[in-house]
Amino acid sequence: MNLDNLPVNHHEKGRLFLSNDEIETLLKASKKSRYPTRNHLMLLMMYRHGLRVSELINLRIKDVNLNRNRIWIKRLKNGLSVEHPIQGDEQRAIKRYLRKRKDALPYLFVSERKEQLTRKTLNYIIKVASNKAGLVGVHPHTLRHSCGYYLANKGYDLRLIQDYLGHRDPKHTVLYTQIAGVRFEGLW
């Protein structure tokens, strides 16, 4: 989604993100698939790290440092590449997934044909999981928006969210702080 071309009142068009409960429902639904370990991990990482589709499918095993619980996120679209921490549940999911792999491919996520995952495949995985979860209008970028919304709703400042998502320009991040309901708590 190109935020530059959106009208000023774009936030009135509907939610671009999922709530915490909806994310949990989506993640549970992703486990009801042919490749539950991989699919759950992909959606979890897209959400937790605010990954774009291309950023996820281009992740390499070498980008993950399980000894330090860190992952190197190579941002696209001229974004700022950064190192993110990996939470315990995510680390365990990565280890579980890698134990099941029997190939020597450099990519973190591979298809059933033992090739780099494609955009089309990831779009399909998210569509199937969202249908199973009973969620409408979920697309891959929804998970990135959900990450930004979560961080804003936790009260993190614009600059931290901007760096976390790899935005060079704060105008791309301000959307999340505009719609964060937590800003209005305690006003009355």
TrEMBL record:
<keyword id="KW-0233">DNA recombination</keyword>
<protein>
    <recommendedName>
        <fullName>Tyr recombinase domain-containing protein</fullName>
    </recommendedName>
</protein>
<keyword id="KW-1029">Fimbrium biogenesis</keyword>
<dbReference type="Pfam" id="PF00589">
    <property type="entry name" value="Phage_integrase"/>
</dbReference>
<keyword id="KW-0805">Transcription regulation</keyword>
<comment type="similarity">
    <text>Belongs to the 'phage' integrase family.</text>
</comment>
<dbReference type="GO" id="GO:0006310">
    <property type="term" value="P:DNA recombination"/>
</dbReference>
<dbReference type="InterPro" id="IPR002104">
    <property type="entry name" value="Integrase_catalytic"/>
</dbReference>
<keyword id="KW-0804">Transcription</keyword>
<dbReference type="InterPro" id="IPR013762">
    <property type="entry name" value="Integrase-like_cat_sf"/>
</dbReference>
<dbReference type="InterPro" id="IPR011010">
    <property type="entry name" value="DNA_brk_join_enz"/>
</dbReference>
<feature type="domain" description="Tyr recombinase">
    <location>
        <begin position="13"/>
        <end position="188"/>
    </location>
</feature>
<dbReference type="GO" id="GO:0003677">
    <property type="term" value="F:DNA binding"/>
</dbReference>
<dbReference type="InterPro" id="IPR050090">
    <property type="entry name" value="Tyrosine_recombinase_XerCD"/>
</dbReference>
<dbReference type="GO" id="GO:0015074">
    <property type="term" value="P:DNA integration"/>
</dbReference>
